[in-house]
């Protein structure tokens, strides 16, 4: 009897220790992941057609093009992965991210309308339009979900994909009707080729978004347990969902205005992290940001080298990888049923 009691106590202590170690941030694997991302960043800095070491203005071109591009990769990877993580918590669905909820398509519609109202809009105006319509579109998506009684794991993303397809069709029609086809094509082809010094600095606002999400991580995690549970634990569910949606819209709007459409990044990374670490937002957020940075940097390096001296849009690489991961996740959920 005494032996069984000691075994139970020891087992409880071991499980608590494992849980503690599981939620720790600064672990050896995380430090190795940071080192790997730093190495990828260095590779990105020295990847390209232009010979920065053999030309007289190589140093200038290094700081004008390579450094901004690498910084934009890191910030964008963190933003889109983080947005997918928060969306999956709020909707309680693994298959949700800005691409499968129509958020990115709404941002594109906002950009088209800004170009329609202002023939030569500044980056601030484009960002404002993208952020505003991202927020409106995401809230409309949540309203649709509230009216749907059948909330299976497949219905939730399908509603977002259908809504996004409608908004994308409207954007295309408006662009063709008002001869803005080039603006539409530029947005749909998400690429970092045009990132230069002076044209990406607003992406640093994503750091503020990350900081705010980390502060409210516990409340967002409770919101992910459902309205009834969150309310019973003293969390204002409606306010925290509105706050989380606003942060997501802000991050997605900035990325859409500066870079363009980057599909499936918010689907791949959060699912991989949650698969191994569970659903605790506070401990997962650093992992999601770091892996998001690494994923998009790898895709961008491939896009620059696969058919050198030409460059493939990074959205093409991301879309291909993301589609495969999306199908794998669907197949896995079907087998679990």
From TrEMBL:
<dbReference type="Pfam" id="PF01032">
    <property type="entry name" value="FecCD"/>
</dbReference>
<dbReference type="InterPro" id="IPR000522">
    <property type="entry name" value="ABC_transptr_permease_BtuC"/>
</dbReference>
<feature type="transmembrane region" description="Helical">
    <location>
        <begin position="240"/>
        <end position="273"/>
    </location>
</feature>
<protein>
    <submittedName>
        <fullName>Iron chelate uptake ABC transporter family permease subunit</fullName>
    </submittedName>
</protein>
<feature type="transmembrane region" description="Helical">
    <location>
        <begin position="71"/>
        <end position="90"/>
    </location>
</feature>
<feature type="transmembrane region" description="Helical">
    <location>
        <begin position="199"/>
        <end position="217"/>
    </location>
</feature>
<feature type="transmembrane region" description="Helical">
    <location>
        <begin position="154"/>
        <end position="178"/>
    </location>
</feature>
<keyword id="KW-0472">Membrane</keyword>
<feature type="transmembrane region" description="Helical">
    <location>
        <begin position="30"/>
        <end position="50"/>
    </location>
</feature>
<feature type="transmembrane region" description="Helical">
    <location>
        <begin position="102"/>
        <end position="118"/>
    </location>
</feature>
<feature type="transmembrane region" description="Helical">
    <location>
        <begin position="313"/>
        <end position="331"/>
    </location>
</feature>
<keyword id="KW-0812">Transmembrane</keyword>
<keyword id="KW-1133">Transmembrane helix</keyword>
<feature type="transmembrane region" description="Helical">
    <location>
        <begin position="285"/>
        <end position="307"/>
    </location>
</feature>
<feature type="transmembrane region" description="Helical">
    <location>
        <begin position="130"/>
        <end position="148"/>
    </location>
</feature>
